[in-house]
Amino acid sequence: MSDNKGKQFSISQEFKNWSSLKNDRWIYGAIEEHFGTKWKIQLDKYPNGSALPYLSCESSETGNWSINTACDLIVDGKSIGTGLRFKFNGNSKACSSGYFINNDFRERRNDESFTIEFQVKITEMTGIEENKSRSFDDDVAKKSSDVVLVVGDKKFYVSKLLLTFHSTYFESLFSESFSESGKSEIELKDIDPEGFQNFLELIYGMSLVDDDTVSGILKLADFFDAKTAIQRCEDFLLTGSEKSIKDKFEMANKYKLENLKKKCISGLKTGSEFRSIIPENANEIDNNTWKELLSKSASLL
């Protein structure tokens, strides 16, 4: 059984011109990949105008596999169902689970559209091997590597030059003043192997930051003082992330992401949002940030 901590994602699909789709029984949304499996939303449409939305999961695994989920279903921003338990399993490559919506679908006009969203939390996952954009222990990696970094029970065959270019931590580690610099294998202690894989994929330009990886990458990028990786994480949080304003502000404050911090503060719209970002320990926020928060709070009163 894999570690499912933090395995959460959101998938949404806009369905346009509802009434014009009356002759289509099944309507399919776009495919998204999360945690080694492919997901999509599909609708089973009935003649009376009602619909049954399904969350579909497909795995390329040929053996037994299973994924248990707890899902929240949202239609046009309105919660329809919470904590819905869907289980995907079996020898087949694809399976799905549905939840009946019995309102708001009977009188759709041709020009109307609506959005269905599933907020998914994976509670248990077995038999699924999460795909990696790049292998750091295959023959290609070994051939181009000049050092092996040992992280937990995994070995990463990497380039000193590339890591030195991106990180002052590795620049120091590989310098002649450190005893480790001459070793062919160097152990990195207290580092999560999966997080390190994601960090390396970003450094090597093989993958982009997403909501599943941004927190772990930021943690390592800060530790390794990898400024380019930090900037890419901030850029994603500014423009592409669907994380809550609370989560974004926590990361902005912790890792000193000033542009993201300013955007979070300026984007506060309600008193409840304001209260949600205030930490229990007031000392976690510096004086300048407190001044900006207090100034913003005046407009929310």
From TrEMBL:
PANTHER family: BTB AND MATH DOMAIN CONTAINING-RELATED, MEPRIN/TRAF-LIKE MATH FAMILY-C.ELEGANS. It comes from Caenorhabditis nigoni. Residues 145-212 form the BTB domain. InterPro entries: BTB-MATH_domain_protein, BTB/POZ_dom, MATH/TRAF_dom, SKP1/BTB/POZ_sf. The gene is Cnig_chr_II.g7931. SMART domains: BTB. CDD domains: BTB_POZ, MATH. This is BTB domain-containing protein. PROSITE patterns: BTB.
